[in-house]
# Entry
Amino acid sequence: MEKKVSKIGVLTSGGDSPGMNAAIRAVVRTGNYHGLEVFGIMRGYQGLLEDDIFRMENRSVANIIQRGGTILKTARCKEFRTPEGRDRAYQVLKGRGIDGLVIIGGDGSFRGAVEFSAEYDIPCIGLAGTIDKDIAGTDFTIGFDTAVNTAVEAIDKIRDTADAHDRLFIIEVMGRDAGYIALHSGIACGAENILIPEQKTDIEAVVQSLQEKERRKKLVNLIVVAEGDEFGGANEVAKVIKERLPNIETRVAILGHIQRGGAPTCLDRLIASRMGYHAVESLIHGRHNVFVGITNNRMNYIPLEQVHKKKGKISPEWMKIVKILAS
Ligand code: ADP
# Structure
């Protein structure tokens, strides 16, 4: 027997990503369209435990579609990892009569939802909000496109300097476990080498390719490194290159947190809107405890308990393309 929902809560949890606001807006307006009462929960699971919850009308999400970050704020919450914490969360929801939850966050936030929905009869729907694009089962995650475009814009600027001085730049982008930001921005910016956690880094091959390019007087050299590359970040790579190729003027640029914020791109606004709409439709139609993904331009509903990090699955063909195009 499917449970009907009438009051739903929406929260953002874990790392923020651009487009979360567009997703909140879509959830609130679709919920209100269907006559549900929609509640915003501040600071993820933390605000849920603290009953930091307020009613959201259509006007409460006006003028946010273009804004990065999240108006609901986000947090990490240790207490929600404990059965006592989750029990408190349930009591809060029960007290307010909230009978469905939309969780916008990464795989950690989804794992929290799995625990919670297994223990209590509160259906949960996940929306993948992460700049890392590291959730299996969806071609898109909310925020990735913006983050990668921010990286591209920054690397293009660095390229101008690299070109003006004939320097080698080693640029570190975000991605502790996943190399998608590095791979996409690296290809889009014409990087000679891209180092990602999914592939073992052959530093000798990197050194050799630079030597070879030096011989051919290749003017601009860019190496893009994901922060989580197993060899180390940009500083570690630079250390080896400076030692082995002292003639090359080498600089390091670590892009850091600029990749998280900023106005979401059209694509991120679009997928956030689409996913937010379908999250509410799922709750209404009894498709519970799933996260909403998009695969081959179709909505895809993956059971939350099947959530896992997309890892180690970057095709070697990508690296071949990088090599050929940077020659
Ligand atoms: P993200 O959602 O970006 O991957 P985290 O991994 O930090 O971020 O997870 C966000 C929050 O989700 C945590 O602070 C915690 O409250 C909750 N959470 C994560 N894993 C679990 C778990 N196994 N059980 C219960 N709650 C969890």
